[in-house]
Amino acid sequence: MSVGAIVAARRHRERPPPLLEVSHERKEEIEKELKKRQELRALLKKYDTNNSGKLERDQVVKLLTDEDNTTPPGTAPSEEDVDFIIKLADKSGTGSLNQKEIEFALTAWRRYTAKKDEMHEKLKEFDVSGTGKLNKPELKLYLTSLNGGKLVSDAEVEWVLEEADVFGDEGIHANELIVATTVWFAHIDEKQAATCCTVQ
After folding, report:
1. Quick one: which of 25, 169, 47 has its CA closest to 97?
2. How far is residue 57's CA from residue 90's CA, in Å, rounded to a whole number?
3. Please, which residues bridge with residue 172 across strands?
C-alpha cells in the first residue's frame, strides 16, 4: 500500500466514541471551562446592547467601569486606559471585542487596576524626563531595579519595549508598565530555568 493510501485510510478511520468516565480532576477542569464560557456569554449579552455579537467602545467603557473595584462605583476609566485595553485585547483588529477578547480584556483590566497605584508611583519614580512615559534609558533603569540592581542589556530593553509598547509611541505608559513588568519576570524565569538545565 502506498504512503498516500495509508494516509487516506487513517483520515477515514472513524473516531472512537468519547469516554463515559473521566477523571475527577478532568471533570472539574471541564466544568470550570464551561462555567467561564457561560459567564462570558452572560457578560456579552448584558453589555452588547445593540446585539452586534461584540462590545464596541462605549460598551467596553461600561464593562470596565463595572469591573473596577478600586474606584467609587460608577467611576469610568480614563480614555487612555480604555484605549490601552482595547488595543491590548483586540487581536482581530476590529476596534471592538468579541467573546474571547473580552476574557483577555477582563484579565488584563483586573490585573492593571489591582496594581494601578503602584504602576503610577513607579512611573513617577523613573520618568525623570517628565514625559508621562518611560523612554528606553528610563525603562532600562526600571528593569534594572526589578533585576535586583543588576544591569540589563540594551537588547533586553528593546525586547521588553517591543512587547509592552501597546500604543506604539516608543515609550511605556503606566498601564503598559504592568505588561512590561509581567514580560520581564517571565523572561527572568526562562533565563533561570535555562541556567538550571545547563548546570544539571
Report:
1. 47
2. 11
3. 134
Please report where in the chains the cell 537588547 appears, as a residue.
155
Tell the burial category of 164 from Cβ atoms under 10 Å away from its Cβ (0-12, 13-18, 19+): buried
Write phi, then psi, for 20 (nearest 5 degrees): -80, -25
CB atoms within 10 A of CB 139: 26
Q: Taking a C-beta distance cutoff of 8 angstroms, is the pair 177, 123 a contact?
A: yes
pTM as predicted: 0.73
Buried b (16+ CB within 10 A) or exposed e, 46-83: ebbeeeeebbbeebbbebbeeebeeeeeeeebeeebbb
Nine cell digits for residue 191: 533565563
The pLDDT tens digits for 25-62 are 877 777 777 887 888 899 999 999 999 999 999 999 99
